[in-house]
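On clarity, I found the account of how folds are encoded harder to follow than it need be. An entry of this sort, consisting of the sequence and the corresponding backbone structure tokens, reads as follows:
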Amino acid sequence: MKIWIQAKARLPKIASLLLAGMLCGQQATAEPLTPIAEPGRAAIGIIIDDLGNLRDRDLRAIHLPAAVTYAFLPHTPHARELANLAHRLDKEVMLHLPMEAVDHNRLGPGGLTLGMNRQQFLRQLRDNIAAVPHVAGINNHMGSLLTQNLGYMRWLMQELDGHDALYFVDSYTTKASVAVKAANENWVPNIRRDVFLDSDRDREKIRAELQRTVRLAREHGIALAIGHPYPETLDVLEQELPRLAAEGVAILPVSQLLDQHMQRFRTWRAFLSP
């Protein structure tokens, strides 16, 4: 997993304090502003993608019994209503940003493509962000072509850098993605997906991928999975999420997964001090 936490004033207070302490050679201490998993406890994040088109299906997803994060496609019939509902239920909302794929699959409304100039790209991006209320971050929908292009990814991250507290999740639809590189260059907080839960919609295979996510979190502290509002995926998550919580696995919104990782940066002071 590749991850970057920026420490500008716009991020949670702990980030600014940590970096300030590291730069001046003093111990930085601060209480997190949001609850996070205890040290040594495995923490996972789960994003459900492709929301906004089918109301009843998506309602079921939004009522999953855990702090799942929900990624809405822009300009879809139910995105605004359901994003508002998710926010009222204290669930985190993301923009699922359509980006051109290698196979040129249909993107739906709001798609970003290599045929756009910078002005067209930014106008569509801003329109997409405005189309989904309560957006905390963005991840790519498809994008196996666009995320390989460093110039376009820099346009994206430069724009995100101008929005308070927006993070970026690389859905990692291609190993050639340079999205993390562009995000790091522009101080945009970011994380890369570790597991796709439902590339195969067989329930037992989905369950196995969820278990793999937990194993990665136990090995590395955190892990991030992406799934979809398929009936099979929701069946598994409705069964397994309460069990995982009972076993002590923290299920966190993506922003809190970033906060969880941020605490580890306390040790950087030793490397930055003269």
